[in-house]
């Protein structure tokens, strides 16, 4: 049964048995002081602020028996999946693979690469380590979602204009319908978050739809009340 969720640019028709939540890169590296995000000179407090909303969204999907996917931006310890063009970009105090306050930066298995404890995956959920900004680059996620009959993706996580938007665009090209939960995503730059959302919903939803979490919750609550 499809449920209509008020969204921009128009209502999103969600089919719960074909929809999965994708939580992008809610890892300590980006969100906690001392991680890669902070090393790049960013104020991480904006990202910390959405953690309760992301937790509520994950809980909502679990309550309704819907699939949850978590991603981490993560490289192999030998950095064989980190091109020099990525590692050498800019002039950060520390680079990917260097030893930081929470272990080696953006390296799989290091403390800083773990998903925040409040949002930790549970058994049965999918965890994808991705070496790129987009979640389909060099991962098996598309095949995994196809096998489960998933055709709609609901997005949350950080940062809106980098890994979230890149993943939504990749998903769009692979045929998924994409809904961004706008209060469950954040950027270090508020103007970039706002612009990314406008880009996504422009031109009739050229990348997808956007809505606050409450609209999704209300749509499901209304359907249950209707029996
Ligand atoms: C960044 C991400 N911003 N998860 N990664 O480098 O958006």
TrEMBL record:
Q: What is this protein called?
A: Cysteine hydrolase
Q: Which GO terms describe its molecular function?
A: hydrolase activity
Answer whether the UniProt record assigns the keyword Heme to this protein.
no
Annotated ranges, domain Isochorismatase-like = 19-207
Keywords attached to this Swiss-Prot or TrEMBL record, sorted alphabetically, are: Hydrolase
The UniProt entry, under CDD domains, shows: cysteine_hydrolases
Which Gene3D superfamilies is this protein grouped with?
Isochorismatase-like
InterPro entries linked to this entry: Isochorismatase-like_dom, Isochorismatase-like_hydrls, Isochorismatase-like_sf
Superkingdom of source? Bacteria
């Amino acid at each position: 049964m499809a449920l209509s969720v008020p969204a921009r640019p128009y209502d999103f028709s969600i089919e719960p048995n074909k929809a999965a939540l994708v939580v992008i890169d809610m890892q300590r590296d980006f969100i906690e002081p001392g991680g890669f995000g902070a090393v790049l000179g960013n104020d991480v407090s904006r990202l910390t602020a959405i953690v309760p909303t992301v937790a509520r969204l994950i809980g909502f999907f679990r309550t309704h028996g819907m699939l949850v996917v978590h991603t981490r931006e993560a490289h192999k310890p030998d950095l064989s999946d980190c091109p020099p063009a990525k590692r050498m970009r800019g002039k950060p105090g520390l680079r990917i693979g260097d030893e930081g306050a929470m272990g080696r930066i953006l390296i799989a298995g290091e403390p800083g690469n773990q998903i925040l404890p409040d949002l930790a995956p549970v058994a049965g959920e999918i965890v994808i380590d991705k070496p790129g900004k987009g979640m389909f680059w060099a991962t098996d996620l598309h095949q995994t979602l196809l096998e489960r009959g998933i055709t709609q993706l609901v997005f949350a996580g950080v940062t809106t204009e980098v890994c979230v938007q890149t993943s939504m665009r990749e998903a769009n090209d692979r045929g998924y319908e994409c809904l961004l939960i706008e209060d469950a995503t954040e950027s270090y730059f508020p103007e970039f978050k706002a612009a990314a959302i406008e880009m996504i919903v422009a031109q009739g939803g050229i990348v997808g739809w956007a809505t606050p979490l409450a609209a999704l919750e209300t749509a499901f609550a209304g359907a249950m009340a209707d029996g």
